[in-house]
Amino acid sequence: MLGIKDAFKRIYSPGENTFIKHTILFVLTGITSIFSVVLNEYSKQQSIDTINWIWAMVGVLFLIGITIYLIGYNLTLMHNSFDEFKNDIVPEIDKSHFSVFGKAFPLIFAWFSYGILFYIAGLLVTLALGINFINVIAGSILVAIGVIGIFLQFVYVKFAKNFERKGLYSIALPIKYIQPTVLALFKLWIKFIPLLILNIILSFFAEGHNVFAYIFTAISGYVSFISGFIYSFCLVQIFKEKIEPLEQSN
Predict the structure, then answer these.
(1) pLDDT attached to residue 63
(2) 2 and 232 in contact (C-beta within 8 Å)?
(3) What secondary structure does DSSP assign to 163-226, as a single string?
(4) Cβ atoms of 224 and 199 closer than 8 Å
(5) How far apart are CA 42 and CA 59, in angstroms?
(6) Is 0.90 topped by the overall pTM?
(7) Quick one: average pLDDT of 194-222?
(8) What contacts 246, CB < 8 A, 6 or more positions away?
């Protein structure tokens, strides 16, 4: 299975637009991270004057737009990761990623709705059984949602292969993916520990409200996003090795 080193090579593959793409990504992710910090500070204030409130709303809309774009961008990177002959898997910076998000949105909305309905069902069961069961049921719900969430990512990997949603709404799908992928995922998480430590260190230097802290906030945002790229690439390789052979044999 291709791993983290291969992901680095294909994310930073020398090319005509490699430097430009990563510079733009640094700006996008850096600005997003800094805006998030500023908005978080606004949210802690007891009262906000009209001008700052307007800027806060503009910032929220900006963050939503960038987030939508970057989700589509990451899905396109997953799509490129299926091609074993494609050396540069980092997509071009263009408006097509908004369209990719648009295609994925019904799937994202459906699975979000499943989570909400599952949570409501848990609350109703709690009310029916009595308050004494609340801790057990709440814990069970969190564990179930956590497990489904971990393996739900392979649903989005499968979507990214051809940008098709057909067959991806089955509630049993993430559960089906547990057995063939759990060991490979665990190994991937172990290999990701150095990147996790790096992100923690950068976050430590990003504490504060000075120029130095904002620079490290931007760097931390970019490194986190690239770490997500690497993780997405590895997920695709796990999918190709562990899931696709099973689906093709059925």
Answers:
(1) 87
(2) no
(3) T--TT---TTHHHHTHHHHHHHHHHHHHHTHHHHHHHHHHHHHT-SSSHHHHHHHHHHHHHHHH
(4) yes
(5) 11
(6) no
(7) 86
(8) 180
